[in-house]
Amino acid sequence: MSTSSGAGRQQRGYFPRWTLKTSGVIMPEERLSWGQTIVSGLQHCVAMSGSTIIAPLLMGFDPNVAVLFSGIGTLIFFVIVAGRVPSYLGSSFSFIAVVIAATGYAGQGANPNISVALGGIVAAGVLYGVIALIVMWSGVGWIERLLPPAVTGAVVAAIGLNLAPVAVKAVSANAFDTGIGLATVLIIGVVAVAAPGLWRRLPIILGAIGGYLLYLLFANGLGFGKPIDFTQLSAAPWFGMPSFTTPTFQADAIFLIAPVAIILVAENLGHIKAVGAMTGRSLDAYLGRALFADSLATIVAACGGGTGVTTYAENIGVMAATKVYSTLLFAFAAMVSILLGFSPKFGALILSIPGPVIGGLSIVLFGLIAAMAGRIWVENKVDFANPANLITVAVALTAGAGDLTLKFGAFTIGGIGTATFGAIILYQILTSPLARRAE
User: Residue 220: which residues within 8 A CB-CB, separation 6 or more?
Assistant: First the structure.
């Protein structure tokens, strides 16, 4: 529920009446000028594009299809939460390990068993939806008891830390790549801190452009690195239909992939809590809707060949850097993504972005994800003098950062899953009546 009377009046209509505001913190029911909205929306497209495209590539999915369904899923989310929760839905990394295991994907080219993976992702979306409906019917109390701020903060931090090696690896191939990655980080930081006016709200997109141009100058121009190859970009058509794929349902793949729904619930809860902390208002009233919207978006995506989706921490990182939370940005970004999904040339352009530049962007965005945990803990006054909180967070951070992987037969839980389930279970054990009696 909103803490301000102005936002409270917004509840009279299904969608807010977005009011114009051009400076300071821009709340979800406010908007920038239309020109700034377009540019800031494009920045969110840039923020999501790296992971939304990298995740399907790692699973052998079509990146254009993933981008298309990320836009469709974001619009589904926007409508179901009544335009009151700022979030972008992109490809979830939580599916990567189980999809590879279920399909036997070799790691290069198209996944020949993609339809089997899609069936499992649909099942995960259905399970996710059942959980969401329970939340909508019974409220969020049981989830809050299961996932209090100490745990949600730990999960958010673990996600950022788990992704950190991906970012570091992208800038570590050689000294040139490291230099480009760090230069990209520096550009983002300088823009966020020192750029005038509107430009200060665009650190990610300007960092991407700046890093790309630097790489182009020193690699293609001066020969210090591997040149960017524009052959595919030149040959790709501007418009074309994506390659849709329908799911097939196999029991082993379903049982392997469906439990990822639990991780998506924890991710979404953590993201909603993070946005609530940043905006200074509780979004708990929309949590059930947010979970259901994410589940429906995952089902729709998987029915057409897209990846499972989740509310994107990368875009939360952009909001943290810009202080712009207007939900209209995400509606615009979603429409742009849908259009881009029908453009093979866009896919080729994104694929032309050098790895070190993506790595530099990822260092900032993944770091901002982890840093959001601190805000969750501070805003909720989490007591780290309490051993239950301290040990839960410590274990989750180590499991996530170290990518602790657990195997149960054919089922594998990666670092994010281990940190999530570990934090939930450990916290409940350490705060149980038996543990309290032992004090």
Answer: 227, 228
